[in-house]
Amino acid sequence: MNFRFPSTFLAACLAASVCYAENFDVIIRHGRVVDGTGNPAYFADVGIKDGRVTAIGQIAGAANAEIDATGLIVAPGFIDVHTHADEVAEQPRAENFLRMGVTTLVVGNCGGSALDVGKFFREVASNGISPNVITLIGHNTVREKAMGGSFDRPPTPDELEKMKSLVDQAMRDGAAGLSTGLIYLPGVFSKTDEIVELAKVISPYDGIYASHMRHEDSEIYAALDEVFRVAREAKVRAEVSHIKLSGEKAWGKADDVLAYIEKARAGGLDITHDQYAYTASSTTMRQLIPDDAFDGGKDKFRKLMADPEQKAKLAARMKEKIRARGREDYAYAVIASYKHDKSLNGLNIVEAAKKVRGSDSLDDQIETILELEQNGSASGVFHGINETDLQKFMQHPNTMIACDSGLREFGKDVPHPRGYGNNARVLGRYVRELKTLRLEDAVRKMTSLPANTFRLKDRGLIKEGFWADIAVFDPEKVTDPAAYNDPHHYATGIPFVLVNGVSVIRNNEHTGAKPGRGLKR
Ligand SMILES: [Zn+2]
């Protein structure tokens, strides 16, 4: 007998030999349940009533809605702890996420969030959204608010107090914790003391500190030390966002890095990590330009560009920097979204330089990068991660699966494919094809692990009494057709997705339903 009957209700059902279908709004029948714990899959029907799973087992009769999951996996809806879907109240369908099985989004990452978290949750509630959403409060957001336009300095005591009170207000309004983006403006200019002080504010609320660290290359150990120090001194748990080793010089160290984190955990810290399943990253092209060119904002950069001597110095430093990283050119950097000249989207910097300047010399590549920034900036895709490291990070039991993507507008620009494919890629490429992970472990990394880490009550498992956030997928077919050069394809093989017991994806189509909620801490 393959069925499990964990509930007292089901015990009563068992006595009567079957459960009665009229007790349910939805029944998902004949599927194999991968419940999110990491335990082996088992065959069972899943009954849903008033938004929650109320029975797991053999269920007879008919309900208002039935889903035939024969040959399919029934899993908890995926929880993506690292997204940039901050505009979800304005773009409530979130189809790129739902179509890859994601039912709960964490936003406010990499130091950037809504400043007014209370207002964020009010807008989510009044507009209605398809997935659930949680937000962090962003360090860069509060630093910018408190310090105005001059950033390359520590805050004054008054400014620090202002930042702390903004973080405190956000936590009282329901934020789940604090995020930093320590390669971005203006956080790049902050010292560790400042982050410790802000993290102390979230500690009494049991908030989490999520960090896009200062370094993700061979200097990663120094960056981890900073995360550990924040966790230790502020007494908070910490999440290393999108863990990776960027650039050939850093490759091959995944085992060392994981051992380094394990050592910190053994010393009493609670450190976890998340990762996307791609060997390219994505962020603004501005990251290729030294940070100090932007202290004081865009005006300073414009002035600098107008001064030939200073501009030449900046270009010379960029040349030094790329060579120091062991690279000959910028072919690894591909333009994803450039409003000023959309014909460059999808070209790497070498190709773009050739197109706009008639030459792809390193000088012309650097000139092209500076032009992108002068003409309103561009986002990019950067091919700089090694497959072996990626798989080692993925196999670690404390690594969650998170895409680091925003909401996608279908057909717009040439964005990183992770926003369409991440979870499907893990289930297709890394579970089915490469066997890097057991199916049950992969699902755990997308469900109960993130739910526990971000303290989500009653989510992340297929369990009686838990919210019915559910992804139903075909383990033989789930695939990520989104490619770097052709990203606008939804994940396939995930025909049914429910949020709070309501179908949001039915037979591979968005139903238009908006059952999602803002989940306050
Ligand atoms: Zn980031």
Description:
- By secondary structure, the protein is an alpha/beta fold.
- It has two domains: 78-283 and 384-454, TIM Barrel (Alpha-Beta Barrel), CATH 3.20.20.140; 285-382, no CATH class.
- The chain contains 16 helices and 21 strands.
- The chain has helices at 8-15, 95-98, 117-127, 139-147, 157-172, 192-202, 220-234, 254-266, 298-306, 308-324, 349-357, 362-374, 387-395, 418-433, 439-446, 448-453; strands at 26-33, 42-49, 52-57, 65-68, 73-76, 78-80, 102-107, 132-135, 137-138, 177-181, 208-212, 237-240, 271-275, 280-284, 333-337, 379-383, 399-401, 470-473, 496-499, 502-506, 509-510.
- Strands 1, 2, 3, 4, 5, 18, 19, 20 and 21 form a nine-stranded mixed β-sheet that branches.
- The longest helix is centred in the middle third of the chain and has 17 residues, at 308-324.
- The relative contact order is 0.17.
- The structure holds zinc ion.
Write the layout of secondary structure elements.
Elements: H1 8-15, E1 26-33, E2 42-49, E3 52-57, E4 65-68, E5 73-76, E6 78-80, H2 95-98, E7 102-107, H3 117-127, E8 132-135, E9 137-138, H4 139-147, H5 157-172, E10 177-181, H6 192-202, E11 208-212, H7 220-234, E12 237-240, H8 254-266, E13 271-275, E14 280-284, H9 298-306, H10 308-324, E15 333-337, H11 349-357, H12 362-374, E16 379-383, H13 387-395, E17 399-401, H14 418-433, H15 439-446, H16 448-453, E18 470-473, E19 496-499, E20 502-506, E21 509-510
Helix pairs in contact: 4-5, 5-6, 6-7, 7-8, 11-12, 14-15
Bound molecules: zinc ion.
